[in-house]
Amino acid sequence: MKNFRSFGMTVAVALVAGLSLQACADDDDWGRGWWKRADFAPLNDPQYVAECGDCHMPYQPGMLPAASWRRIMNGLDDHFGDNAELDEPVRQHILSLLESNAADRVDTGRSPGVARSLAGQAPLRFTETRYFRRKHYEIPERLVKNNPDVGSFSRCDACHLKADQGNYDEHQVRIPGVGRWDD
Q1: What average pLDDT does range 77-86 have in this prediction?
Q2: What residue segments make up the domains of the chain, in order of their start?
């Protein structure tokens, strides 16, 4: 009986420790293994990558809620100053992918944190979210906006070395002309 009680205590302590680590992990995906992390699941659909990635980094859908993606995809005639209109079947296909993988539709990586930070808002830019601002408040604008190799906080892939894989680990940040960023 003593061995059974000891085993039970060991299991209980391990369970509590595991849950504590999970709760304290912030956004570091300790439970899934940081070496395989995907903060935002990449969308590797060839049509999405070709159409959207032709002009900018093809952002991961989990960075914004479905309502934001609808606003963006319904306003392609004036897409941040450019005409990015698509044939209707292509637009519908991409919109469907973006909506079904949006921050408020998935429960993996950083997407739930983004969705919680929005309080029902549907911003057009990830950089407008409280989540983004909380993660980047320490970075002086001069290192980004006045940096000819970056130019804007919207150029995630300029500093996040594995942005194309959905990995935004702060230890993988290298600001062009500055080097490794450590907060």
Answers
A1: 96
A2: 2-36, 46-180
